[in-house]
Design a protein that fits this description.
The chain has 269 residues and is of the alpha+beta class. 40% of the residues lie in helices and 13% in strands. The chain is built from 11 helices and 8 strands. The strands form 3 sheets. The protein has a 4-stranded mixed beta sheet with strand order 2-1-4-3. It has a two-stranded antiparallel ribbon with strand order 5-8. Strands 6-7 form a two-stranded antiparallel ribbon. Strand 1 and strand 2 form a beta hairpin. The longest helix has 23 residues.
């Protein structure tokens, strides 16, 4: 991983040149060039031996990206996948998340009668890293990299205020879905501990800061019957609503302890 990360700035620059079809810098005729050979996998074609020219001071994967390929190894790539093929799978997975890397590899192996195993997954992960870094550069240029930018600017109608705009009461209304069906048994997650770099998801450590601010826990009641005597009509109405909420009352403390409380909570205005 560290080998890939050390190359990332050069890979990003080469990827942007390739994506926008910019002309490559004129080669130095006095500089030595090397030729190495790789196997290439594309969408509808594959090549068992392809010659790639590499400048003396150029990374192998930079030379590959210049011609639309990405290696499966950071140092001495022997197998490469075309950027168009990686782009295709990226869009397929975005619109059909259940279509896994293994499924794509099976398709490519059946089309080209080859064996890829983990090489495609390695190349795809590096491709995603390149796209992530490009998006970070775009966010920095647009000044969208400030803390909580998505929270503050997700809805222009709610978050953007005009000069002398009258104050609304309430200022905005939000709804949140707890997604109880997505909660998992604690410890049942996949062994992969990678943390996604995204501003949409909040890390559990940041959420846990407010865990003691919640007054009611699942399975508890707002008040007991002994406190009804001094309750106001509004309190009585709230108690009735709490008691009638069947879903909350069916969750016991033991059930809460078993479940991992880090499901996906979607908030929308």
């Amino acid at each position: 991983h560290s080998a890939w990360m050390s190359q990332m700035p050069a890979l990003i620059a080469s990827y942007l040149r390739w994506k926008h079809c910019e002309a490559m810098p004129a080669p130095n005729v006095e500089a030595r060039t090397f030729v190495f050979h790789v196997s290439t996998v594309d969408i509808l074609a594959s090549m068992s031996l392809m010659s790639v020219q590499q400048a003396a001071d150029e990374l192998a994967n930079v030379s590959l990206i210049n011609i639309g390929l990405l290696g499966c190894s950071p140092i001495q790539p022997k197998i490469t996948v075309s950027l168009q093929c990686l782009k295709l799978y990226h869009q397929i997975h975005r619109h059909k998340p259940s279509f896994s890397v293994q499924a794509m590899v099976k398709v490519l192996c059946a089309l080209h009668n080859i064996s890829l195993r983990d090489q495609f997954a390695i190349a795809f992960n590096v491709y995603l890293d390149i796209l992530q870094h490009v998006q970070e550069l775009v966010n920095t240029a647009l000044k969208h990299d400030t803390p909580h930018w998505h929270m503050l600017h997700s809805c222009p109608a709610c978050s953007h205020k005009q000069e002398n705009e009258p104050t609304l009461i309430p200022a905005r209304m939000d709804s949140m879905d707890g997604n109880s069906s997505l909660k998992r048994i604690d410890g049942s997650r996949h062994a992969d501990e990678h943390i996604s770099k995204t501003s949409y998801l909040i890390h559990p450590d940041e959420v846990d800061i407010f865990k003691d601010d919640v007054q009611l826990q699942p399975g508890t009641r707002a008040v007991t019957s002994n406190t009804l005597g001094g309750a106001s009509p509004a309190d009585i109405s709230e108690m009735a609503c709490t008691d009638n909420w069947k879903t909350a009352n069916t969750i016991s403390d033991n059930t809460v302890k078993v479940l991992e409380q880090t499901g996906i909570f979607i908030s929308a205005c």
